[in-house]
Amino acid sequence: MEGQSLVLFFIFISVFSGDVEGGLGEGEGEGEKRMFVFGDSYADTGNNRIALAAAWKYPYGITFPGKPAGRFSDGRVSTDFIANYLGMKTPIAYRWRKQLAGRMKHGMNFAFGGTGVFDTPAPYPNMTTQIDFLQQLIYDSVYTQRDMKTSLAFVSVSGNDYAYYIARNGSTAGFPAFISSVVRQVGVNLRRMHGLGVGKIAVGSLPPLGCLPANTAPSSFRQCNKAQNALVDLHNRLLLQAVTDLNNQTGSTSFFILDIHGAFQTVFNRTRPHQAGSPKFENPLQPCCMGVSAAFSCASVDENGVKKYTLCSNPKSTFFWDTLHPTQEGWRAAFSTPPLQNSLRQLFQY
Questions:
Q1: What is the rounded distance in angstroms from the CA atom of residue 81 to the CA atom of residue 114?
Q2: Measuring CA to CA, how many Å separate 256 from each of 10, 126, 234, 282?
Q3: Of 247 and 10, more confident
Q4: Mind listing the pLDDT tens digit for each residue in 30-76?
Q5: Is 322 assigned a catalytic role?
């Protein structure tokens, strides 16, 4: 046990000496604003277990911070870009709260890769439990009501509930009803955050899941799955209605949507190979890192340590990092689009 503790200590020092939790180098203010993050791998900055998650294995993190650090990308993820835009440091991952107590003033990231609104096979807390963690910190007086009033919550819901529904052979006919139940629970969660005193609550729209490399592989990464994207559209319509209802019911403008779906679609439409003047991502649906077969994934190795994945020469040339997650450059492109820029202006005014 002592040896394991030393290993974790050196990993911890190595990771954070590189300022993994820092912003993007611009607008890192020390104001009173703070951000609390809930959700999944699109927002997780290192809560997942080092021994289990691919995000702690090479080649994850090769762009930033130069080594695996718990982000499901080659570099920064959505949380980092939002924090940078707001002029604050990226909030620390919940798992490091004791080691980095001095950084808690910037907020905290409770997101765990693989989790959902409801329980999923991932051995991590769902969103309800993540909110429990924040509630306990408030109870322990780590954050005051004044802290909460000037805070922002970012909620990432990226489809793990739906992947699990498919994996357990949920019926096609029952999918719309399940989507309704997911969005309904998202609404319950958002209202609860508001009840804890969070000043502004931003929930990301569901990205076009039918365009993820995991779903476009059958078409050689050329065509999105229209049936899956139709279900995504249903989720996003219900989510918009839920957020509108919450604002009306609370007589506030505390709840709003970050248009991640619109941002992804804008990038895809701008960078199709047949469109002149937009060759940045030659094929935006093809990932940089993927397993050599369906049995393997990015970071997979055999018992002898031989890699079972292929890696592109330049992650900046691809929108997707692996079969599910964007590259740092992909996230940068998404956050530069009008849909997300417009959403971020609302955040900037909070």
A1: 21
A2: 40, 21, 17, 33
A3: 247
A4: 447 899 999 999 999 999 988 778 999 999 999 999 999 999 999 99
A5: yes
- Burial state string for 69-97 with b = 16 or more CB within 10 A and e = fewer than 16: bbbbbbbbbbbbbbbbbbebbbbbbbbbb
Q: What global pTM score does this model have?
A: 0.90
Give the Cα separation of 201 and 152 in Å (integer). 6
Structure tokens, 203:
């929930």
Q: Measured between alpha carbons, how far is residue 27 from residues 168, 220, 329, 350 in Å?
A: 45, 40, 19, 16
- Cβ(21)–Cβ(103) under 8 Å? yes
Written out in words, the top-level CATH class of the domain with range 21-281+329-348 is: alpha beta
Helical (H) or strand (E) element with 93: strand 92-93
CB hemisphere CA count around 88 (13 angstroms): 24
In the annotation, is 317 catalytic?
no
Active-site residue, from 106, 235, 261, 325 = 325
- List pLDDT tens digits, range 268-324: 997 544 444 444 798 999 999 999 998 899 999 999 999 999 999 999 999 999 999
Reading the block at residue 208, the tokens are 């076009």
In three-state secondary structure terms, 344 is helix
Residue 134 CA to residue 36 CA, distance in Å, equals 8
Q: Is 41 a catalytic residue?
A: yes
Kindly list the domain boundaries of the chain, sorted by start residue. 21-281+329-348
Buried b / exposed e along 206-225 (16+ C-beta atoms within 10 A): bbbbbbbbbbbeeeebeebb
The neighbouring-strand residues paired with 36 are 108, 153
Type of residue found at 231: L
295 by Cβ neighbours in 10 Å (0-12 / 13-18 / 19+) ranks as exposed
Select which of 80, 147, 259, 322 is catalytic: 322
Single out the catalytic residue among 40, 41, 297, 343. Answer: 41
Element (H, E) at 208: none
Residue type, 340: L
For residue 207, the 8-state DSSP code is P
